[in-house]
Specification:
The chain has about 500 residues and is an all-alpha fold. The protein contains 26 helices and no strands.
Length: about 500
């Protein structure tokens, strides 16, 4: 648990480098708001890190993975690259070389998103399958660590920047040094045991036999997967026009993946693994790609069955929908009813950090006692109930006492729901494909909430600015997910009791 907490700190800290600190530096350097705003685009890589997550299950970084293990090797390598990027930023003048500064920020985001994949996989793999209930505790430690790295350590550069003789390039040297200090967590951690290599070797021989026999179908599957990947990138990094087509993109990507899974399953059902099948280099490469990209997803559907798998994915999308839609409009709501920027900073930001730490640990202890399924029910109902406090605030007006109570309750319930949700998707993962399946499930939840959450402003406008009704609707949005959870609770309990 200590290692998971330390890795959580290392996960949250890079957000400071490419977020608040970078924005403050660029502002002091005299860049325009538009130029500064463009840098926030680097955060989009966190939404699509599932696209390369299979590589962290399959590839081993030379020397590091042999010495430390696959999870710790990837974590350490990404941390070292992040520290090097901080060194690079300390030598860059954004006024004369803005492109290089942007590339350095992008590399930090890429390495940080990749590190997150390895950290999540380490967290899940470190919990024995006989003790699935402890996934809640692990999720709480990870969440607490993330907020400690993001908020607590994130305050250090701003205090230092105001000291005599310090400037922003020096601050980035300090950030790089702190990142190097956080690598100590890798040496304190113990690499979890895994049967991953054996599972991939068996799958490789099976897929190779199918590719040799059904090469044309394998090419169609490769084309479907490649198209889905391109659509994901376009949907996340595309122009404004594409932002309004994200729902259509989601449906098309899902259709392509369903086709790929069905075709692959049909190919494999007709051709068993054959040890004498060698195949050419092109066929072996195709089998390697299909195993890496397709087998984690096919395994998820095969283990659970298509109906249950789709139900699980639908629950992942729906569970935190109300919270996501409310979160998009919370700052707008605060300002419209009369709160100042200082009020928002003090209550919505700093207070949320403290509440999240306490709530994550408390929620995990309760979930550990009542189980993941009941934890999801209680967490979901609590999140919905907290939204009603916003409706009350919309009626009362800018009352700071009510704001304090609302932020505390909302932060507590949101953290509790997050811990329960993280534990839930953790137990759904097959240990042979942990990085791939967890990153995919987490991204589906994020992408779904982001897709529909983009219409939160439209909902408020369609209600004529009636904030009370808006917050009541966000509270009711949790009902479909809880009904679905109740319908499949026995099957989820069987999954949680048998394997992760």
């Amino acid at each position: 648990m200590l290692s998971i907490f330390l890795f959580g700190i290392a996960s949250g800290f890079p957000w400071v480098m490419i977020g608040s600190v970078l924005s403050a530096w660029l502002k002091d350097a005299g860049l325009t708001r538009s130029a500064i705003g463009y840098f926030t685009a680097v955060f989009a890589v966190y939404s699509v890190n599932f696209l390369w997550s299979p590589m962290l299950d399959r590839l081993k970084i030379p020397f590091l993975c042999q010495r430390l293990g696959q999870r710790r090797g990837w974590i350490l390598s990404m941390q070292l690259v992040i520290a090097c990027c901080c060194l690079l930023l300390s030598q860059v003048d954004p006024n004369s070389n803005l492109t290089l500064a942007g590339l350095a920020a992008l590399f930090i985001a890429l390495c940080s998103a990749t590190q997150d994949i390895a950290i999540d996989a380490f967290r899940i793999d470190s919990i024995d399958t006989k003790h699935n209930e402890q996934q809640s505790s692990a999720a709480a430690m990870s969440t607490s660590g993330w907020w400690t790295g993001y908020a607590l350590l994130g305050a250090i550069p701003f205090f230092v920047a105001d000291m005599p003789g310090w400037n922003w390039p020096d601050v980035y040297l300090l950030l790089g040094a702190i990142m190097l200090l956080l690598t100590l967590g890798v040496w304190l951690a113990k690499e979890p045991q895994s049967m991953r290599d054996k599972a991939y070797q068996e799958a490789q021989s099976h897929y190779l036999a199918a590719v040799v026999a059904k090469g044309h179908q394998a090419m169609l599957v490769m084309l479907a997967i490649a198209t889905a990947v391109v659509l994901c990138f376009v949907g996340v990094f595309g122009s404004t026009w594409f932002e309004y087509q994200t729902l259509a993109f989601s449906v098309l990507v899902l259709a392509l993946l369903v086709y790929a899974i069905r075709t692959t399953s049909h190919m494999l059902s007709q051709h068993n693994a054959c040890t004498t099948t060698q195949g050419g280099p092109a066929q072996q490469a195709m089998a390697w790609v299909l195993v890496s990209m397709g087998e984690p997803l096919r395994d998820f559907f095969n283990r659970n069955g298509v109906r249950l798998a789709l139900s699980l994915l639908l629950f992942v999308v729906l569970f935190k929908m109300g919270e996501a839609i409310l979160g998009r409009m919370s700052i707008v709501f605060y300002k419209e009813i009369g709160f100042s920027n200082s009020d928002i900073a003090a209550y919505s930001k700093l207070l949320t950090w403290a509440v999240t730490i306490v709530a994550s640990i408390t929620g995990s202890l309760i979930n550990l006692r009542i189980g993941i399924i009941k934890g999801l029910f209680v967490g979901g109902i609590a999140m919905a109930a907290s939204n009603l406090l916003f409706a009350l605030m919309a009626s009362v007006g800018p009352d700071k006492t009510l704001l304090f109570i609302t932020i505390v309750v909302d932060g507590f319930t949101a953290a509790w729901g997050t811990v329960a949700f993280m534990a839930f998707i953790s137990v759904l993962c097959n240990r042979a494909f942990t990085a791939s399946q967890y990153a995919l499930l987490a991204s589906i939840g994020t992408f779904g909430r982001t897709t529909l959450g983009a219409y939160s402003g439209v909902i408020v406008d369609s209600l004529g600015g009636n904030w009370q009704l808006f917050f009541v609707l966000t509270a009711l949005m949790v009902i479909p997910s809880l009904v679905l959870l109740y319908m499949i609770r026995d099957k989820i309990q069987a999954i949680a009791g048998q394997r992760t």
